[in-house]
Design goal:
Blueprint: H1 6-21, H2 30-50, H3 56-76, H4 80-102, H5 104-114, H6 132-147, H7 157-165, H8 178-181, H9 193-225, H10 233-263, H11 282-288, H12 291-302, H13 312-330, H14 334-340
Helix pairs in contact: 2-7, 3-4, 3-6, 3-7, 4-6, 9-10, 12-13, 13-14
């Protein structure tokens, strides 16, 4: 289900009305209200995600259950070594699922092309589940944060499932942290008119970015790039500039709709874009573009590798690793890897 689809335009107000005017007023007990709110979020999130292909619900359920168990396991083991083993097992399994669906065929094809081998019998030809990179990274951050004692593990499977599958940010981010989002599912939400109206403004602004800016830029960009050989330099340059606005309007528009939709349900998501094209330099641009992904790589890869505190050579090495991973995260293709480098 896409944010700019008719289905979502009908889906969102129905969910909103049921969320606030059925489960909020028909149940008087606060604990029961919270449970029903969270259960309702889980159900509608699974409907939202399964709208495209219900079979992918199995994958997100596996990721959710394993990460939930890993948090409890890390809490119960006394030695740091055993806690670390539980965290690593969860990381390996979840990255393994992501790797099979997103990268297996890419590596097989690359290997086969390099050695002139027929790759067809080895390919799985799996359909890539939408949003798998987002919810996988969100689940991994939970296990790592529990291991680091940044957050206590939850023993409530419903609130944890709501945290992993919350539909506004499920398929296109922002990638949320358990330290920010999970506590919001542990307390009763109350309707806030000002917050809801702000959410609606963000949704409308996001739709404008997506439909008016990105989609219209895309028409020109596709026309030019589908016939490169007959274009002059100025047309190609102009298409490249418009493409920058296209991907910004598309991605930041989706983030605005996600953040705005979450506000309608009393949930605060973190900012994902901060006017990146007004940055004073390239370094600042990357701090303001897809903030949740950049911050994820910084906190869970860059800093553990030593960050910028172990000399210039290692700082350069760590930066290259981060951007290679960033390129690889965006897609299983050598063009993405080269872009990251």
């Amino acid at each position: 289900m896409l944010f700019n689809s008719l289905e979502y335009i009908l889906f969102l107000p129905i969910v909103f009305l049921l969320y606030w005017f059925v489960f909020d007023y028909t149940i008087k007990n606060n604990k029961q209200q919270l449970l029903w709110q969270n259960m309702f979020i889980v159900v509608v999130s699974y409907i939202f995600y399964g709208w495209w292909d219900w079979r992918f619900l199995i994958l997100i359920a596996i990721t959710t259950f394993l990460s939930f168990l890993s948090g409890i396991g890390i809490e119960r083991f006394e030695t740091k070594q055993k806690k670390k083993i539980v965290m690593i097992i969860n990381i390996i399994i979840n990255l393994g699922i992501l790797g099979v669906y997103k990268y297996y065929d890419f590596f097989v094809k690359s290997f086969a092309d390099a050695f002139n081998i027929n790759s067809e019998p080895l390919l799985l030809n799996l359909i890539l589940p939408i949003g798998i990179s987002f919810y996988t990274f969100q689940a991994l951050s939970y296990s790592i944060d529990v291991y680091r004692n940044h957050i206590k593990p939850t023993h409530n499977i419903v609130e944890f499932t709501a945290f992993i599958s919350f539909f506004p940010q499920l398929v296109a981010g922002p990638i949320e942290r358990a330290t920010n989002l999970l506590p919001q599912f542990q307390q009763k939400r109350h309707f806030d008119y000002n917050q809801a109206t702000h959410g609606m403004r963000l949704i409308l602004w996001g739709l404008f970015k997506k439909i008016v800016v990105a989609d219209n830029c895309g028409i020109y960009v596709d026309t030019i790039w589908n016939d490169i050989s007959s274009q002059n330099a100025s047309s190609l340059a102009f298409a490249a500039i418009l493409f920058s606005f296209q991907i910004y309007g598309d991605f930041s528009g989706y983030s605005d709709i996600a953040i705005g939709s979450a506000k309608l349900f009393g949930i605060q998501l973190r900012e994902n874009f901060r006017t990146p094209f007004f940055s004073r330099n390239i370094a600042e641009l990357w701090r303001r573009w897809h903030i949740s992904l950049t911050k994820w790589f910084v906190d869970y890869v860059y800093i553990p590798l030593g960050g910028s505190k172990k000399g210039k050579i290692k700082t350069i090495r760590n930066t290259i690793i981060i951007f290679l991973l960033c390129g690889f995260w965006h897609g299983a293709n050598w063009t993405y890897i080269l872009w990251g480098l």
